[in-house]
Each structure stands twice: as structure tokens, then as C-alpha cells.
Amino acid sequence: MNPDLSAVARLIADPARSAILLHLLDGCERSASDLALRAGATPQSASNHLAKLVDGGLIVARSEGRHRFFRLRTPEIAHAIEVLGSIAPVAPVSSLRAHTLMERLRVARTCYDHAAGKLGVAIGESLERRRILARRDGIYDVTKRGSHFFAALGIDCDALRLRKRTFARPCLDWTERRDHLAGALGAAILHVMLDRRWVTNNPRDRALTITPHGTTAIEKTLGVPLSS
After folding, report:
1. What pLDDT, on the 0 to 100 scale, is given for residue 85?
2. What are the C-alpha distances in Å from 102 to residues 90, 108, 165, 205, 206?
3. In a 3-state reduction of DSSP, which class is residue 227?
4. For residue 69, what is the enclosing H or E element?
5. CA angle, 34 then 181 then 191, to 5°
6. What DSSP assignment string belongs to 88-136?
7. Residues 61-78: pLDDT tens digits?
8. Angle, vertex CA 97, rays to CA 205 and CA 71, nearest 5
9. 208 and 119 in contact (C-beta within 8 Å)?
10. How far is it, in rounded angstroms, from Cα 171 to Cα 121?
């Protein structure tokens, strides 16, 4: 039996619903009013769109008092949206603000719970080049050298493998058209970078800001040239 791709396509095809999904791509929960504003929809229209996305299994809802909060149902849905973005035409940029945001997203951003953009792609490529990761059968595996490397970063690869998600896999980056590192390991690396303030989140969008301290640390630790 084949999957019903048309059912998902119909959900994503509406511009307001696709905007809602893109705004949830950072893995965070957002309120209905926030998503309505970001999607340019009225509260009543947004409520209808959110209900369809919940019924379609793409997002889940949580109630807190009179408010409802929404997030993507699984990391795999974020991965699918990112891959679709890599084959979709880029929406025309009509303002300086939109152009600036696009450039910031290209440099570094979150894709659900891992790093994407030029930074995310460069991290994955550096770890492969330094033989910390090896790609086998479409997924990543950690080499013996890599086990020591990640242990020094405070990342327990054995514990990550026990989680109910893919350990490490390539995710096609929608701005770079090359793979970045996703899965539990990609999330753990981003957690380290955030915890050590090599990068910081932006409350308004998915862009990551690389700090001056982070530029030096990412170059030295992850082998990604940033200062040139």
C-alpha cells in the first residue's frame, strides 16, 4: 500500500498553513495568536488552519488555561519540510527586512533542534573530513576517533543511540542544497554550542547568532573556518 502523499500535500499547499509550519520549524511551542500573526491570518482563520494541521498529524496542541500552544509532532516532520524547502522556489524578497532575515538564516539557523545553514553544513563536512564521522548507507556513524572527540565535548554517544530517534543522519539544507547533520547527535552538538554560548538563539526567528567567543571556539573545536 502506498502512502497518501496527496493528503499531506493538501495540508501544506495552503500558504497560511505552510507559513505556520515554517514558523514551527525551530521545534519550539508557539501560541495560536503568535502563529496567526506570523502567518498573516485572522485568529478565526488561524484556528481553522491549526485544527487541520492537528487532524492531519503534522502538529500537536497543548492547552494551558485558556491558551493553546502548538509544535511540530516529530523531528521527522521538520526534516521533511526542510527537504521540501530545498526543492521549492524561493519566495521573492520584497523588503530590506526580509532580505536581511534571509541572509541571517543562510548563515546559521535552527532546523528543529539542530544547526542548519552555512554553519550546520560546514560542521557536518568538517566532522566527515576529519574522520570523526563516517557516512555509511545514508546515515552517519561515529568513528573510534569520533567517540573520543564527542566524549571530550561532553556528548555521550551511547546514550544518544538509546533514544527513540535516528542517531545521526544527513538532512538536505534548503538554503545550501547540501547536507547538514541532523538526528540526536546534531541536536546534542547544537545544545553544546548554545550551552557554551558559541551561538545564541533569536526570539523572533530561527536565525542563530555566532558570538565572538563562539567564532574562535567553533574554529578551534569543530574545525569550521569563520573568521576569514
Report:
1. 82
2. 10, 10, 30, 11, 10
3. coil
4. strand 67-72
5. 60
6. SPPPPP-SHHHHHHHHHHHHSEEETTEEEHHHHHHHHHHHHHTTSEEEE
7. 999 888 899 999 988 898
8. 20
9. yes
10. 9
Alpha helices of the chain — where are they, by DSSP H?
A: 5-13, 15-23, 32-39, 43-55, 75-87, 96-107, 117-129, 144-152, 157-161, 183-195, 212-217
Query: How do 169-172 and 30-31 pair as beta strands?
Result: unpaired
Q: Is the pTM of this model over 0.85?
A: no
Q: Which three cell numbers stand for residue 37?
A: 500573526
Instruction: Answer for the pair 51, 58: CB distance below 8 angstroms, yes or no.
Output: no
Instruction: Give the containing element (helix H, strand E) for 63.
Output: strand 59-64
* Nine-digit cell string for 226: 569563520
Residue with cell 502523499: 5
